[in-house]
Amino acid sequence: MTDRSAQTESAWAAWPLDREIVLSRVIDAPREDVFDAWTDPEQLAAWFGPKGLAIETHEIDVRVGGVWRFDMVGANGVRYDNRMTFLRIERPHLIEVDHGSDKDDDPGKFRMLVTFDAQTDGKTVLTLRQMHPTRARRDAGIAFGAVEFGGQTLDKLADHLAARKS
Questions:
Q1: What stretches in the chain show pLDDT beneath 70?
Q2: Minimal CA–CA distance to 38: which of 153, 166, 163?
Q3: What's the whole-model pTM score?
Q4: Per residue in 106-130, pLDDT tens?
Q5: I need a surface site. Which of 53, 66, 130, 158 has the fewest CB within 10 A?
Q6: In this structure, are strands 110-118 and 67-74 parallel, antiparallel, or unpaired?
């Protein structure tokens, strides 16, 4: 393990729970396939985001230091600008990003860790952790719908992988 990985893991372990949102889902697909859905630009744009929102990618570079700039677009034309900066990618175990609006110094930006745990039955437990800078920012995210929208996003991932299997 690199020093950076050890430091990052230590930061996650020490993060205050009242500033964190955790979502988990069992996906009926092998870990490598689930990981690929998060790292293949074409797949990622096909399923990411809550129900009813389309993804329009402006730039995507899925590698450590790379950025995904995209809009989530509602049926009514409302746009939500997003930026993810990829901080750590350890195939097929985890992906760590900073996620916020597509603005520099976004005060609502949060750290996200996605882990992929292979199960003996060929399924994958995906856990998505969001670390928010303050409890107030976490609470604002929950009030906005982060838990519900995150659940919808993971549903879309599961549906995407099921369709690829058939």
A1: 1-13, 16
A2: 153
A3: 0.89
A4: 988 999 999 999 999 999 999 999 9
A5: 66
A6: unpaired
Compute the distance between CA of residue 51 and CA of residue 150 in angstroms, rounded to an integer. Answer: 10
Collect contacts of 138-141 with beta carbons under 8 A, ≥24 apart: 138/18, 138/19, 138/20, 138/21, 140/108, 141/21, 141/108, 141/110
Q: In this structure, is residue 14 part of a structural domain? A: no
* Both structure tokens of 55: 């993804």
Q: Say how many domains are in the chain.
A: 1
Q: How far is CA 150 from CA 3, 6, 129, in A?
A: 31, 27, 10
Angle (nearest 5°) at CA 27 between 23 and 28: 165
* Nearest-angstrom CA–CA distance, 44 and 57: 10
Q: Per the domain annotation, does 82 fall within a domain?
A: no
Q: Is residue 79 part of a domain?
A: no
Burial class (CB in 10 A: 0-12, 13-18, 19+), 44: buried
Question: Is residue 23 in some structural domain?
Answer: yes
CATH of the domain at 141: 3.30.530.20
Domain hosting 106: range is 19-51+91-165
